[in-house]
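#onboarding

Welcome to the new folks! Below is a worked example of what a typical request in this channel looks like: someone posts a single protein sequence, and someone else replies with the predicted structure as tokens. Don't worry about understanding the tokens yet, we'll cover that in week two.

Example request:
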Amino acid sequence: MTRTARTPDLQFRTLEDVTAVLRRHGGRLSMPRRLVLERLFAAEAPLSAEAIAVSVRLELTSVYRNLERLEQLGAVRHVHLGHGPGRYALVGRGAREYLVCESCDRVIAVERQRLAGVRAAIRDGFGFEADFGHFAILGLCADCAVPDA
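Example response:
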């Protein structure tokens, strides 16, 4: 499969933005979909489907079905932040990539352009176009990387 340059992500800043795209594609904002979106808009970090289901009191299958549809529309992105289940993040704040501490599980959301130098080094060194949007970069945060005094 040949992949060309990435298409820019749509910006979904409000529930109304997502609703407009849903309607353009023949969908609607059902109550379960609204609950899932409201939870994602309120979240500071990507959430697992299980965490969403528990917090909004929906069946897990309903949450997964709605997340899948929202991902198809480009409003939600599925990411892997190390060990454990995949998580979902709203695209509303623009493309994000994640750094995850393997010691304390801290998640740092990074704007895509801030890792441009890393992508350039990989491109120059290996002829490979890296994309960190689906899988996090694992390592140690500044606090955990400090050797004991």
